[in-house]
Amino acid sequence: MVGALGPALARAGHQVHVVTPLYRGIPERFPALRPANWRFDLNLGDGPVSGQFWRLDPEPRLTLWFVEQPGFFNRRGLYNERLRDYPDNAARFGFFARAAALLARHLPEPPHIVQAHDWQTGLLPMIIRHGCVAGGWKFTPKTLFTIHNLAYQGWFPATQWKVSGLPPEWLHLESALHHGQLNFLKGGLTLADALTTVSPTYAREICTPAYGCGLDGLLRRREYELTGILNGVDYEEWNTTHNPALPCPFDAENLVGKQANKLALQAELKLPENSAVPLIVNITRLTEQKGADLLVVALEELIAAGEVFQFALLGSGDSVLEESFLKLAEKYPTIIAIHIGFDPNLAQRMEAGADFYAMPSRFEPCGLNQLYSLRYGTVPVVRATGGLEDSVIDPREKPERATGIKFHEAKPLALANALRKALFLYSNPALLTQFRRNGMNTDYSWTRQAKEYADFYEEVMHGV
To answer: Which of 422, 429, 436 is nearest to 302 (CA)?
Structure first.
């Protein structure tokens, strides 16, 4: 999201600086990246830790800054390895937040607003607030904290507060202290000037106990400073007409190529090549959040009922869920195809070749695959939550503009019934074509979404 929003804002005329850790592999990927001759030391409580900034200017008005600290960021994983968090994550991201604040404070043209994302940057609004009230920072920027997934909060022992570089008295219940522990996310939520999340519906949902992950009370207090802005799609990457990953180009006016992509995908996945059989796909992390367990049961239900369809999955995650899908494929090899892992080119081909995309998430802050599906003429079948609710139009809402099918209960039967509706839709080619064209003509580009952010930045900067 940040990688797409930054360039979109720059192309709209804004000066944008994006700051990220210098993770392993980045210098090899960007040969033009160079050290910025800007070194610094930060005391994390056990002595100074050295770092330096690297810089890349990929296009006008856009600068990418990378925080180099090899001991922290030159690792195999970003936050964990083998599903185990790094034990020094508090120090790693405390260091990163302080480095970002240092950069914001000393740029030749200081920023008007700093947007921080998720728990990894939760200390940043606090550091900037402290610089304003106690640190002699005269022209501090406004701060905006964006929640991408409230479930991940960055919990650490309160003794790790030293990594923030802030006085002990700044850790309290109205900052980052939560149930006796240090909560990075809460720090950002309490002391940022404004809050956003990645869809309007998710902004409302997280103010309730069901979705608030223990922070709903705080979010309700800040409800009038919380805005939901849907993520966008990079249509240069996700396009159906000039895409080397796809066997055949197509567009909303000429869908013949989509059928050719379907036949090619069936062959690649070793499913019977038959354009008359509806093909449902899912590309996902195999987790309970994504509703993968619901999908296993719903597929069994449809097969047992004699419904005619094919299903393909690309993903990985929970080993029990992986095994459940693999057993389905073994049991029904002419109906089910499972690919454990991730392959971005295969993901493109699945989106292009499928008829329907199943997305039964229990919660979904924004979701991207339903947006990719709309662009690729693949009708999404989604649970009405978060960004799925905001981006997919069910025929019961606006029949002439319908783009997908929604269901509400996070239960296998509800999902199975929604998929039955999809199979019925497939039996009506004219209506299916209307759904497809409605979706393909919907604009969820970052050009549009960046304007929403720019308008909101203006509101925050002027205290509206």
So the answer is: 422
- Expressed in angstroms, the distance from the first to the final Cα of the chain is 25
Positive or negative, the CA dihedral 31, 33, 37, 42 is negative
Q: Are strands 310-317 and 336-340 parallel, antiparallel or unpaired?
A: parallel
DSSP codes of every residue in 322-381? HHHHHHHHHH-TTTEEEEES--HHHHHHHHHH-SEEEE--S--SS-SHHHHHHHTT-EEE
**CATH code for the domain of 308:** 3.40.50.2000
87-124 pLDDT, tens digit each: 999 999 999 999 999 999 999 999 999 999 999 999 99
Does the predicted TM-score (pTM) go above 0.85? yes
Q: How far is CA 278 from the centre of its chain?
A: 28
Q: Which residue has 């900052």 as its token pair? A: 175
Residues 42 and 114 placed together within one structural domain of the fold: yes
Contact yes or no for 66/15 (Cβ under 8 A): no
Q: What parts of the chain have a pLDDT lower than 70?
A: 464
Residues making up the chain, counted from first to last: 464
The angle at the Cα of 150, spanning 144 to 151, to the nearest 5 degrees, equals: 155
User: Tokens standing for 107?
Assistant: 């740029």
126, 100 contact by CB (below 8 A): no
Structural domain contains residue 339: yes
Query: Looking at residue 46, what is its pLDDT?
Result: 87
Q: What is the DSSP string of 230-254?
A: ---B-TTTS-SSS-TTSSS--BTTB
Q: How far is CA 254 from the centre of its chain?
A: 31
Q: How far is CA 232 from the centre of its chain?
A: 10
Task: Note whether 397 and 428 are same-domain residues.
Answer: yes
> Are the beta carbons of 186 and 153 closer than 8 angstroms?
yes
**Does residue 65 sit in the same domain as residue 139?**
yes
| Residue 248 located in a structural domain | no
296: domain range?
Answer: 256-444
26 token code pair? 């980045």
225 shares a domain with 311: no
Report yes or no on 308 lying in a domain: yes
329: region left, alpha or beta (phi > 0 left; psi from -120 to 50 alpha): alpha
- For residue 352, the one-letter residue type is A
Q: How many other C-beta atoms are found inside a 10 Å radius of the C-beta of residue 330?
A: 10
319: part of which helix (H) or strand (E)? helix 319-331
331 close to 356: Cβ distance less than 8 angstroms: no
